[in-house]
Amino acid sequence: MEVTMQKLAPAKKTYKLKAKDPEALVIEMNKRHHVGEFAYDLGPTRISVNKDGSVKALKLAAKTQITMPSWAAYSKQTAKAKKEWDRFYKCLAFHERGHKLILMESFARIAEKARRLHEERETEGTPLTPKDLQQVIQNEWMSSIVNDPQDVYDNKTGHGRTQGAVFDAAKC
Fold it and tell me: Are 36 and 67 in contact (CB under 8 A)?
């Protein structure tokens, strides 16, 4: 059975922060639940079947998007403020890419479980059906909901704070 994973190329989206100075920027960002965000929708996952109804191939896919801030008053800032913004932005982008890697790891776990089940079924002489494969996918995502690796990552990194994704107005 062939298993492939769609290359995840997140759509890029931005929103504007309207603060005029670094201190006001910190206040504006603190009002937001997330300053940056990685979002995804699973699918379309495709399962191809052989003539006998057994699974021939699995393609895992997701639609992804990374939303990042832009500072409308950036061009009017001091060199120190721009340097701090650029540092912060780079760290925030790194954090959001971490979410993408977690999704890729989830895909890899599903692919490995699907391959193993396929091999087991071949050894038993019982074909792997699309229904069996859907169950593998559903079980993996359900276990992810209970202990969501995306939430674990955000809790561990303080939503990127431990990775430097904090704008420090005092450095401006």
Answer: yes
The secondary structure of the chain, three-state, reads CEEEECCCCCEEEEEEECCCCHHHHHHHHHCCCCCCEEEEEECCCEEEECCCCCEEEEEECEEEEEEEEEECCHHHCCHHHHHHHHHHHHHHHHHHHHHHHHHHHHHHHHHHHHHHHHHHHHHHCCCCCHHHHHHHHHHHHHHHHHCCHHHHHHHHHCCCHHHCCCCCHHHC
pLDDT digits (tens, 9 = 90+) for 57-73: 999 999 999 999 999 99
Q: Rounded CA gap, 60 and 40, in Å?
A: 13
**Where is pLDDT greater, at 79 or 62?**
79
Q: How far apart are CA 134 and CA 13, in angstroms?
A: 32
pTM reported for the whole predicted model: 0.89
CA distances from residue 148 to 43, 85, 154 in whole angstroms, order as listed = 18, 30, 10
**Dihedral of alpha carbons 152, 154, 155, 157, sign:** positive
pLDDT digits (tens, 9 = 90+) for 6-53: 889 999 999 999 999 999 999 999 999 899 999 998 877 899 999 999
Q: Say if residues 37 and 11 touch (Cβ distance below 8 Å).
A: no
